[in-house]
Amino acid sequence: MEEFRKLVLEANRKLRLADHMAYITYPMLKETKLLLTVLDNLDKSLKASLNAYLHYERLYKRISPYPDDLKTKLEIFERGPAKRYNLQNYSKLIIEVNNILKKHKESPMAFVKKDKLVICNRDYRMKVLEIADAKNYLAKAKPFILMLSNILKENDADTRRQR
């Protein structure tokens, strides 16, 4: 249970950091490259949440052991915890944020134009990212991580009642 708690706290910490950067730091600095840091922290938060859900299910023996790759984790999540906690649409969000960061790492060029970050791939197809996109991803991720925090609180309450 300690591992589950650690993952939930990590997910919440990274979400708060991404939220602070998007709503406080970015407006003050107007540095468009901060969008990547916001998305990176959001990605880490979403992955920690995914791992926490799977760890919780594994703890109660609802799922079998699984490999440590994102695709398999998402498939297992969709079959189990997503249905149990009504979280079916969050796999798409996790994949989308992860793909943006992956495209940036693989891109030969990324540049800032006005308040937008433009990521080009090898064929110079562009992905444009702006602060509204980052805030939208944050808004979609918050209920996912809030549900996880509620599971931890319920579990803590059950533990206290049993004592």
List the SSEs and their pairings.
Layout: H1 2-29, H2 34-59, H3 70-79, H4 81-84, H5 90-106, E1 109-113, E2 116-120, E3 126-130, H6 131-162
Antiparallel strand pairs: 1-2, 2-3
Largest sheet: 3 strands, antiparallel
Number of strands: 3
**Helix-strand category:** mainly alpha
Mean pLDDT: 93
Order of H and E elements: HHHHHEEEH
Percent of residues in β-strands: 5-15%
Whole-angstrom Rg? 17 Å
Q: Using the alpha-carbon principal axes, give the shape.
A: globular
Number of helices: 6
Structure commentary:
- By secondary structure, the chain is mainly α.
- The chain is built from six helices and three strands; from the N terminus they run αααααβββα.
- It has helices at residues 2-29, 34-59, 70-79, 81-84, 90-106, 131-162, and strands at residues 109-113, 116-120, 126-130.
- It has a three-stranded antiparallel β-sheet with strand order 1-2-3.
- A hairpin with a 2-residue loop joins strand 1 (109-113) and strand 2 (116-120).
- Helix 2 packs across helix 3 (70-79) and helix 2 (34-59) packs across helix 5.
- The longest helix is centred in the last third of the chain and has 32 residues, at 131-162.
- It is globular, with a radius of gyration of 17 Å.
- The relative contact order is 0.15.
